[in-house]
Specification:
alpha+beta; globular; 102 residues; 9 strands; Ubiquitin-like (UB roll)
Length: 102
Amino acid sequence: MKLTVEFGGGLELLFQSVRTHNIDVPVKSGEKQLTMEVLLFWIRDNLLKERPEMFIKGKSVLCRRPGVLVLINDCDWELCGQLEATVEENDNVVFISTLHGG
């Protein structure tokens, strides 16, 4: 499944400072959708280059904590079902850190 994944607000530093990734995530045979949970673990295993604890921990995604905004096609994933939300071919998923040092 072809998707665009973007990282901003400092999260791109965990992905070798690459902000936008055009990815092709394998899905189970006969399925046209995958869940955000599956996508997040695929990102951890295939894109994340350093400090995985800053992005995901065990089976709990740090994106679920305050400080990271997750958008699926410009819609907050909290309105879509969070980990159970599904993504489809050519969707755009954005992760933005809202925490800033000072």
